[in-house]
Design goal:
This protein has helices spanning 4-20, 26-47. The chain has 70 residues and is mostly helical. The protein has a domain at 1-38. It is flat and about 50 Å long. The termini are far apart.
């Protein structure tokens, strides 16, 4: 049986391969699989961060308003 993160990598890669595989070479698919592994690893690290309900967003979105539109 595959470790949980390896299973995630395989499933996400297969989804991308089914959708975009016809557009990519074998070498490009290898790079995509490597990238998927990095994304899954990063997501696992982010899930480890403990946040409570009092935590606000890390940065607030403020849209840019050009001066000629004000």
């Amino acid at each position: 049986m595959l470790p949980n993160n390896q299973k995630d990598i395989e499933l996400r890669f297969e989804m991308l391969k089914l959708r975009f595989g016809h557009l990519l070479t074998h070498d490009e698919l290898d790079k995509v699989k490597e990238s998927v592994g990095e994304v899954v690893a990063t997501a696992q690290e982010l899930r480890k961060v403990d946040l409570d309900h009092n935590e606000g967003p890390g940065n607030l979105f403020q849209p840019h308003m050009p001066t000629d539109c004000r």
